[in-house]
Amino acid sequence: MKFVRTILVLLVLLTPVVSAVEVSAQDTVTIEWWSVNSEEYSEEAQRALAEAFMAEHPNIKVNLTILPESGFQDKMTTTLGAGEGAPDVAFFWDTNWYPQALDLTAYIEADPDLGPETYFEGFWKTRAVWQDKVVGLPLGVGANFVMYNKDVFDAAGVAYPTDDWTTEDFIRIASEVADPDIKRWGGDRPRDAYRAIWNNYGAFLYSDDSTTVDGYFNSEANIAAYTWLWDLVASGATPTPADIEILGTEGTGPVDLFMAGRLAMATLNQGHMLNAIEAGVPFGIVPEPQVPGNERYVNAWSLTSSIWAGTEHPDEAYEFLSYWVGPEGQRFLMENGNLFPSIPEVLAEYEYADQDYAQAFFGVLELKQVAEWKNEHPCFGTVNRAVSDVWDLVELGEIGRDEIASTLNDYMDDAQAALDECVPRLGG
Amino acid sequence: MSQNSITTPRHRWRNDWWLITRKIIGHVSAYVIMTALALVFMIPLLWMLSTSLKGRWEIFAWPPTWIPETFHWENYQEAFAKYPLARFMGNSAFLVVMNIIGELVSVPLIAYGFARLRFPYKKTLFMLMLSTMMVPGHIKLIPLYNVFSRLDMIDTYWPLILPSFFGNPFFIFLMVQYIRTIPRELDEAARIDGAGTWTILYRIILPLCRPPLTVIIVFTFLWTWNDFLQPLVYLNDFNKYPIAIGLAFFRGRYSVEWNLFMAATLVSIIPILIIYFFAQKHLIGGISSIGIKG
To answer: Which residues in chain A touch residue B200, judged by CB atoms under 8 angstroms apart?
Structure first.
């Protein structure tokens, strides 16, 4: 009995230690804001932004929770799945979360300062609008482009790539600059099919009306894109996916290899560009290679920032969201962090806008976005997963160059079945 | 005719010499192999140490270097300056202590019940309890979140502590198996001497259960120290995060600061190494005794 009594006393004593103390003021509304710490918006910058907002809105308290990048997805998925405990305002960067985002259409229509015309058109279309609803506002811009290490090119005596380079140029230059003796690769490989280079070839997975894969998955354009990949793999000038995985880039792009001078060219993004500037690595930027005569695409993104549909304070949440992702907030994060705003008039104020790298980055943003087609075709992911073996077979060098067309034909039924199954479920 | 009868002193000396040499060669080989294996197992740790002292982009240079060009001891300082790692480790230590208390309170009680007491549907309940081990933790996450949310315990340590006070099926299973190996005669003798159930448990059974209790302490320590998902889901306040979450902050959206990450990780595993150093004898003894006797 003495033991049980000791435990009970211990529990009673510990209660105040582990209990959260809830402080609530009667006249203020607290908005829960979840975010991550990033190269573009540090914790300090975001806390300062919240302070600035609260100074202007004394009736609203913003409670910022900073989560690790790798945990944000799990925490959001859990709380949204539980239907409780989700934040009032947060990134809704997973499209699966969109159904639980508050429809902002009415707020946007009533807001004289904010609307579709405020943002880059492409990002509004791909990151704010979903199924005719406004599910969020796009924060910042990001894009993939090819960064090349000038020192490595100079040492190899190879001319730098230029904006008008082609996919064939990519393989040629990568092969010229690669040096297996010192474990240096010329360029990286695309991370998946149907990104910018596939679109540059004019290759799409299925028809625009989402009815058939015939004439698309097995099209000449798709065969050409896969043949280009086959040639790139066969050149030996690129690290394998296993190399990339082992050499520690954690799915963010092979920046570590690039910065160490072991990858002469790499498909990276504006965050990596900032890394290179900080480290003093001399680099240049060109868009992903084009296919002459075809429209050119870019894999670009912005972070959908939304209000949870379950919020108890939608008005106050919108007040904060429109500040954070509006011109004021994005300007604040640009000046106090490294954000590239998704608002053209604010981006134009970027301090180093006249630098070559900034001009090159801004130029890439003007290309047509890969996400546009994907956003309008919600079954893309399902169909792509059904045929992902084709990608693996080419990447692993398990089929011959002349077997690409027949391999695509072999997967036609799987692709069509996936499309037929998905469209009634998610829409066309 | 026995072999000894034809053994001359010279033969005997040769035999002895051969035996001694064989013994020495055996010992030396064993040590060489074990040292080599130990070094192989040490490689990740040594690489972590080397990485923690390198410049950020030196890590991926070719050929790889074990000794950094310049020793960046400031990486450790920077890692601690960037995030409150000491606080995170303190939070982890608190969770570890509380979970160990919880398991030590609950597991012996439940295990003793299953191992010694008689009650209806005992086998069924035992099987039911064991079957909960088959349910992946991720599946329970959302329902448990709902439960703790309704108890108004989100952003407190309770969801991370309370479950341990209700027992862990794996530990209960271990303990039941161990208690079953203790002769019932000891219980009966104590009962004849006037001991009740509680006295038998705490005075007779528990003192004999040191091996499984050590296993419980060490595993609870490891699992709690390394747990990332549950604290992530239940805690919102940055200052309450344990070290497993703190380390994740070194991975940015677009890149990882490997040198700082390794410096922080190396410091964070020191408590685990210390615990293992002191507990390894009991831990291995505990596991083997449970395995053999169970």
So the answer is: none
User: Using a CB-CB distance cutoff of 8 angstroms, which residues of chain B are in contact with residue A279?
Assistant: 56-57
Residues A70 and A48 both lie in one domain: yes
Q: Is B59 close to A260, i.e. CB distance below 8 A?
A: yes
Q: How far is CA A156 from CA A2, A173, A175, A265, A366, in A?
A: 79, 11, 11, 13, 32
Contact B146/A66, CB-based, under 8 Å? no
Residue A137: give the domain boundaries.
26-142+301-368
Tell me, yes or no, whether A182 and A314 share the same domain.
no
B126/chain A closest Cα distance in angstroms: 24
Q: Which residues of A touch B236 (CB under 8 A)?
A: 32, 65
Q: Which two tokens stand for residue A323?
A: 């500040």
In a domain, A103, yes or no: yes
* Domain boundaries along the sequence of chain B: 4-52, 74-293
A20-58 per-position pLDDT tens digit: 434 444 579 999 999 998 888 889 999 999 999 999 999
Residues A253 and A305 in one domain: no
3-state secondary structure of A129: strand
Q: Are residues A289 and A419 in the same domain?
A: yes
Contact between A18 and B198 using a beta-carbon 8 Å cutoff: no
Chain A hits for B105, Cβ within 8 Å: 7
- The distance of A70 to chain B (nearest Cα, Å) reads 7
Find the closest chain B residue to A142 by CA distance.
B254
Q: Based on the domain organization, do A289 and A411 belong to the same domain?
A: yes
Does residue A7 belong to any structural domain of this protein? no
How many domains are there within chain A? 2
Binary contact (A75, B255; C-beta < 8 A) = no
Residue-wise pLDDT tens digits, B140-197: 999 999 999 999 999 999 999 999 999 999 999 999 999 999 999 999 999 999 999 9
* Token output for B225: 């120290």
Pairing of strands A283-286, A89-91: unpaired
Q: Is residue A19 part of a domain?
A: no
* A93, A216: one domain: no
Angstrom distance (rounded) from CA B133 to CA B138: 12
pLDDT at B279: 76
- CA A150-A154-A157 angle, to 5 degrees, is 140
Topology adopted by domain B74-293:
MetI-like fold (1.10.3720)
Tell me the three state secondary structure of residue A257: helix
